[in-house]
Write a structure and sequence with these properties.
Elements: E1 2-6, H1 10-21, E2 25-30, H2 33-42, E3 46-49, H3 55-61, E4 68-71, H4 76-90, E5 94-98, H5 102-105, E6 120-122, H6 124-137, E7 141-147, E8 152-158, H7 170-176, E9 182-189, E10 192-194, E11 207-213, H8 217-224, E12 233-237, H9 241-250, E13 255-260, H10 263-272, E14 277-280, H11 286-291, E15 299-302, H12 307-319, E16 324-328, H13 332-337, E17 344-346, H14 348-360, E18 365-371, E19 376-382, E20 403-410, E21 413-415, E22 428-433, H15 439-446
Parallel strand pairs: 1-2, 1-4, 2-3, 4-5, 5-6, 12-13, 12-15, 13-14, 15-16, 16-17
Antiparallel strand pairs: 7-8, 8-11, 9-10, 9-11, 18-19, 19-22, 20-21, 20-22
């Protein structure tokens, strides 16, 4: 594909590098030459310095024959205007824009072809808030991903010492849950991938990737964790867009407190939230935390715009006895550093990349989730009747060892496939790909042929 990406920030540069490594033709545009200089030397892509909303810059970037424009600059207005220009002057087929301001996002009629012709809106803050809300509702999971319109969830769980599954093999895990449809997609030990064979003995601190029905996930996690928190009492540090989003999603059935440093923002949150308690203060203040009964909290979320402050406050909450701590962190080096000090690090960058990839992958791909900081992917594809995967037993698809068909969804039923299972038209296929070099092979299997149209 020929893709123009506007904005060489963390998300834009990560997306450009990843797509270029998959042999897509990428042009990366940014206002600052220094943001582009290192990237062009690392991978085979084209860089262009300039304002991506200007027609002459888009023309130089190749908008006339581009398949897609992805506008990810820091400015909502630049992103929106760039999509308008790409549509009006160059008829670029697909246009994706990052828009952060809720003042725009709440105006549904604004993003229509006759108004602002944007096909897909991406809001990193909303995506991060949804991810955190799922984690709070699934105590014990490090990551929770949804498939098949919420019918199934894939959870990443670190096995705790004393858990029922610790010291047992995978076959024992399946036998202990006879009525639960369960697929183990991967097991990682000390950063090394282990083949999830029935005889594999699980150990404490292994990371296990399990796929099951959404209504059965807590039952599975109970086998992998010695104790599960309740997730009912939540303290949020930071009332920005992410903190506000999490509080709004939880306040109807959880006891939520939000600590916000800005008096103006705290007043705004108290007007917007109906049941959550909003406090103006410093989330690293021991006295304030003790006054607000931090030791009774099930979850502490550090969701400010300052990564260092998030790390420190989450570590402080852990020291004060909170069972589960969640911190908003983007830098991979920080995530490696605090892996054992904080329970869960949520990266808005990785969550946004997953959302973007859903709309960029070829074939009829319905969902893409980036795993292990972009080194692996889980995706959901719909099998149309002209796709190459139709009518063949899975064992004859010649899939690489790093590609695992984890489950099928047929007529709202979860099917655990084997080598003899045949994929049928309209099946939803859930795949786990541990080596992204083979993504093209997967896309070709589910790509619609020309005769479909």
């Amino acid at each position: 594909m020929k893709i123009i990406i506007l904005g060489a920030g963390r998300i834009g540069s990560s997306l450009a590098i990843g797509l270029a490594q998959e042999n897509n033709e990428i042009t990366l545009v940014d206002l600052e030459e220094r943001n582009l200089s290192n990237i062009g030397n690392r991978v085979d892509l084209r860089t262009l310095c300039g304002n991506g909303a200007h027609p002459n810059i888009l023309q130089q970037a190749g908008a006339e024959d581009a398949d897609m424009l992805v506008a990810l600059t820091r400015s909502d207005e630049v992103n929106m205007i760039a999509c308008q220009v790409a549509y009006s002057l160059f008829n670029t087929p697909q246009r994706i824009a990052r828009v952060r301001a809720s003042e725009y996002l709440t105006q549904g009629n604004l993003f229509m072809t006759e108004a602002l012709p944007i096909d897909v809106l991406i809001s990193p803050e909303q995506i991060a808030a949804r991810s955190i809300e799922r984690l709070i509702r699934r105590p014990g999971a490090l990551q929770v991903l949804e498939f098949a319109d919420g019918l199934m969830q894939l959870a990443v769980v670190r096995i705790s010492p004393g858990a029922p599954a610790a010291g047992r093999n995978l076959l024992d895990l399946h036998h202990s849950l006879p009525d639960v449809p369960l697929h183990v997609a991967a097991v990682y030990r000390d950063q090394q991938a282990l083949k999830p064979e029935p005889e594999l003995r699980l150990k404490a601190h292994d990371e296990i990737f399990v796929l099951t029905r959404t209504d059965q996930l807590n039952t599975v996690v109970e086998k992998l964790r010695a104790q599960l928190g309740r997730g009912r009492h939540v303290l949020i540090a930071g009332g920005g867009n992410v903190g506000h989003g999490v509080a709004a999603q939880l306040e109807s059935d959880c006891h939520v407190k939000v600590i916000e440093h800005s008096e103006y923002r705290a007043r705004y949150l108290s007007e917007q939230l109906t049941r959550a308690t909003v406090l103006q203060g410093d989330a690293t203040d021991d006295k304030l935390l003790l006054d607000e009964n931090i030791r009774d909290m099930d979850v502490f979320c550090a969701l400010t715009n300052n990564e260092e402050a998030n790390i420190l406050s989450a570590m402080q909450a852990k020291r004060m006895g909170v069972p589960t701590t969640i911190a908003l962190i983007n830098r991979p080096s920080y995530i490696d550093l605090i892996e054992r000090s904080i329970d869960i690090a949520v990266s808005p960058q990785q969550a946004t990349l997953s959302e973007l990839l859903t709309h960029i992958r070829r074939g009829d791909v319905l969902a893409v989730h980036s795993l292990r900081r972009g080194r692996a992917e889980a995706l959901e594809a719909k099998a149309h009747h002209t796709a190459a995967a139709i009518g063949q037993p899975i064992g004859q698809l010649n899939l690489p060892a790093s590609v695992d068909i984890a489950a099928l969804v047929r007529d709202d039923e979860m099917i655990l496939p084997n080598a003899l299972t045949t994929i049928k038209p309209d099946d939803h296929v859930i795949l786990f790909i541990s080596d992204k070099r083979y993504l093209k092979d997967v896309e070709r299997l589910f790509q619609v042929s020309a005769t479909f149209f």
